[in-house]
Write a structure and sequence with these properties.
177 residues, binds magnesium ion, binds inosinic acid, 6-stranded mixed β-sheet, 9 strands, alpha/beta
Length: 177
């Protein structure tokens, strides 16, 4: 629920829709990773709620770890440079890795993450992203599980922020500028 004074936000994806989609994605992962114990790597900060909701729908065993990147600072447009702010703490070699992102926009972050993880020789590597901006260019691999494809809008809520604000909202909103 929004406060009355949050007039800059317009609901874009409801919490019910998100919950339904999260269940679907978890069901697929349950099937495709049956008998395996993947490591979910959440990309901080944006993916924390999505990751928490997905793994609570899983029937398989799993582990989690986090990687923190920064490319936006407090801006709405990517700086074009990805920096690592927190490295992984787990052993990747020989493991099934599932990277969990909040949103793929330019694709720079996932390209950076893919390179970083492949160096450590995982048994397999897949990507989940809650949101995928359709304008994405130059991704030469696919995002395996996508929550919603969205237009080129700046969105907040359900983990996503603008200048660190709005992550606690339980639906996704367009930020009117
Ligand atoms: P990319 O590297 O351009 O694909 O951007 C990925 C990261 O930028 C995401 O993990 C988000 O943290 C952030 N980001 C991109 N688009 C949005 C948006 O619409 N709202 C909030 N954060 C965004
Ligand atoms: Mg992010």
């Amino acid at each position: 629920m929004l406060r009355k004074d949050q007039k800059e936000l317009k609901e874009y994806i409801s919490k019910e829709k998100i919950a339904k989609r999260v269940k679907k994605i978890a069901q697929k992962i349950n099937k495709e990773y049956k008998g395996k114990k993947p490591i979910f790597i959440g990309i901080l900060n944006g993916s924390f709620l999505f990751l928490a909701d997905i793994i609570r729908e899983l029937k398989i065993d799993c582990e989690i770890d986090f990687l923190k990147l920064s490319s936006y600072g407090d801006e709405k447009i990517s700086s074009g440079k990805v920096k690592m702010l927190k490295d992984l703490n787990c052993e990747i070699e020989g493991r099934d890795i599932i990277v969990v992102e909040d949103i793929v926009d330019s694709g720079l972050s996932v390209i950076f993450i893919k390179k970083l993880i492949e160096i450590h020789k995982p048994a397999s590597l897949r990507f989940v992203s809650l949101l995928f901006k359709k304008n994405v260019s130059n991704l030469d691999f696919k995002i395996d599980y996508i929550g919603f494809e969205i237009d080129n809008k700046f969105v907040v809520g359900y983990g996503l922020d603008y200048a660190q604000k709005y992550r606690n909202l339980n639906a996704i909103y367009v930020l009117k500028s």
